[in-house]
Amino acid sequence: MTELVAVVAGATRGCGRGIAVELGAIGATVYVTGRTTRSSTSPMNRPETIEDTAELVTAAGGNGIPVRCDFTVASDVRELASRLDRLDILVNDVWGGDPFVEHGTPFWESDLDKALSVHRNGIETHLIGLHTLLPLMVRQGSGLVIEVTDGDDETYHGVALPYFLVKSALRRTAQAMSQQLREHGITAVALTPGFIRSEAMLEGFGVTEATWRDAIAEDIHFSMAESPHYIGRAVAALAKDPNVARWSGQSLSSWSLMREYDFTDLDGTQPDWGRWYEDIFGKGLDPNTVDPADYR
């Protein structure tokens, strides 16, 4: 297989980092993009950096190239595009909305500036990335575009309105782009993780990746938590699939692709958030009476 070239937008931490590293594990050259570097931070005010991620990509067997790129700034993305001769995989994982989301607050009582920031960071960045980077794929007549979202259907679960609109928009973006791109040999999908065990989530529960199971006592649903590598392995499986076009336009999930490609998380288990959610929230099973191991 020809060495794959990927851009992971929003690869500083979380899903983006897990995806970048797992693409590295299949030998890809990964342009690790984000706003936080070892010399400058972002409004997220987190310690993770694009250089850290790039080193992890290289250590996994790929070639990690850190590029500071603010996807709200079109000129930054144009500069990134100018460095690329080809592009096989575009992972649109820019988010940067957590500091501005007001879950639990009625929209009309929320901060409008924060709501608009969620929209700009979560949707406009993806549009800028697509508009600027897709021409590379169109010229070569091939490629895979992945819109990272939250959820695989349009059911509303009571989250903040701007958050729901962003995540829904990304699923619809993949659906629309799949039709526009199909004639150019390009596949576009949306992809969601389950209960993601990001750096911020671990910190919020006061645990580490090594001790994450200690948080189950606080939240039983954490028993289904998956590392960012899980969605990363889903992306790697899609990247290696010669028949990936069969997924075009669909809203996929880490757990549905696990069932298809049979990959595991870092601990060797296969967390199935979809089945857990259906049984606990759909069928009304008491999570304290079931064995989480049966869902991993």
Automatic annotation (TrEMBL):
Pfam families: adh_short (PF00106). InterPro entries: NAD(P)-bd_dom_sf, SDR_fam. This is SDR family NAD(P)-dependent oxidoreductase. It comes from Kibdelosporangium philippinense. The lineage of its organism: Bacteria, Bacillati, Actinomycetota, Actinomycetes, Pseudonocardiales.
